[in-house]
Amino acid sequence: MNKSATYLFVFLSMHWLLGCHGADPVGSGNESIIMRSPSFAGLNDSIRQFPKDASLYFRRAELLSQINQHELASADFKRSWELKPVAETGLHYISNLSILGRPAEKLALLRDCIQHFPDNLEFRRLLGETYAESGRSKDALQLYNNLLQKDSLDFETWYEKGLLLEEMKDTSEAIRALSKAFHLQPVNTYALELAHLYAENKDPLALAICDQVIANDPARQLPDPFFIKGIYYSNTTQYNLAVLQFDSCIRRDWKFSDAYIEKGIAFFKQNNYDGALNTFRMAATVSNINPDAYYWIGRCYEAVNKKEEAIQNYERAAALDKNFKEAREALRRVRSVE
Length: 338
Prior knowledge:
Elements: H1 3-21, H2 32-35, H3 38-49, H4 54-66, H5 70-83, H6 87-100, H7 103-116, H8 121-133, H9 137-150, H10 155-167, H11 171-184, H12 188-200, H13 205-215, H14 224-235, H15 239-252, H16 257-269, H17 273-286, H18 291-303, H19 307-320, H20 325-336
């Protein structure tokens, strides 16, 4: 083949490749193997034929999301939204950006969605959630208050407001907001969140709500109400009753690691170090990357003056959680008396 023929062959080959893929840039690059798999063949062909059809990009984005290819899905959601901004696409795209951890893009998209769909309250609630996640608690609270001024029966906004106030350490207002949400929509999610706040506040209303949830659980599957009752009894120093509730929780879900931790703490506060140590070891067995389990194992060893064992477990807790202040303080404390 002479040089002219070679150049013509290369030119025609490049032209053919660009013709096949130029309208669909997501199909090229490092992930081309995924995009060219048989699962996507039909959609890819359709997109090449109809590059302005937003629904095709949306369908492919959904398929990519199902196989955890969220970066690729993001490009398709974006293209679908640009071609035809509909509410369903906006909600899926927002969820995608949350998974990818792109708060600035998510915030910009939410504002765009609100501009397109001013009467859709879901976008405004999601904006409040995004404000809260990015540390803009006052902005989130103002947004929720504005929504509730327009519709005081909006139970979802009452619930989101309650969660925000809980994070802001305004317990009394959080209880008020969650009570309102639960009164308007008595579902388990709202009930348990409210009961947990009551339990932390040493209010026996926690027990009444949990008993109501248990009575409405004929399948006997929910462990959470027993856990919350245990928290209430621990906070009111009724440790034997607390242990019984944590045991009930564990019987329903043996992987509920926090139940082992709280049960162990109940033993520890009664100076039952053997019982506590065995329980914390179970917590570490259930989840061997739980820093709290090793911290409390260290506390047990420190209590019985086994300093080397205490140090080893405090070190492991601190290694698992670099911000575990109590574990680091415990290490300094034990080392200082060696």
